[in-house]
Write a structure and sequence with these properties.
The longest helix has 15 residues. The radius of gyration is 17 Å and the shape is globular. The chain contains eight helices and eight strands, in the order ββββαβαβαααβαβαα. The protein has one domain: Rossmann fold, CATH 3.40.50.
Amino acid sequence: MADYMDVNGVHTWYDERGAGEPVVLLHGGLTDSRDFNGNLDALAERFRLLLPERRGHGHTPDVPGPFSMEAFADDTAAFIEKTVGGPVRLAGYSAGATVALWTAVRRPDMVERLVLISGGFDPDGMILKPSTDGPPPPPLISAYAEVSPDGADHFPAVIAKVARSVTEDRPLVQDDLAAVRCPVLVMAADDDIITLEHTLRMYRALPAAQLAVVPQTSHLLLHERPELCARLVGDFLADVPAPTWMPIRRAAG
């Protein structure tokens, strides 16, 4: 079931699927909720999935003013408050992972479990960054034009806002991550656009983190290994017990 709602003055589109405990899925940058088609949408068999699309992305129109992670995180928290009214399991992919992490930092009362897929906390960890240099890939333009109420001609403006946000937003620091107390699954490809070194820094800075590096995958790991990714995420969100017999990092817990 797809619908619109007002979120902080933004006419926000979202989809809802399945039943059970609520899980909010946040798509990547310059894309939309179709990021989860054929992979994490399978979680609708176990959870009530909520898939909002951010301002200027997918079916949600752009609004005046720049993009920022703070604004995206505040929109996410407001969406959760309106649709659920309390803390949820929150999962984000790529830029959506960064939004999810910012949401957990700014509104820890709205996040009970967190999944960060191919995301980072500081743009310095990115091998490839959004840029206005050169034309965007035609499939990206086509996907935007298929659903955007602003039309294909507005896409360069959205790219410019995203690129500016990456360069001008203040990054999170390790003290911010240390304040995230909920359980976190950090997932990345073994050949991602986020360096593995950055992924490890994030994992180590989050007090209750688990780490999954998906072999033989790229930044499109959700589409390359959809069943494996969905199982890892689903088991984590469902809190399926997996005790370790010889803990080192978690031994104190």
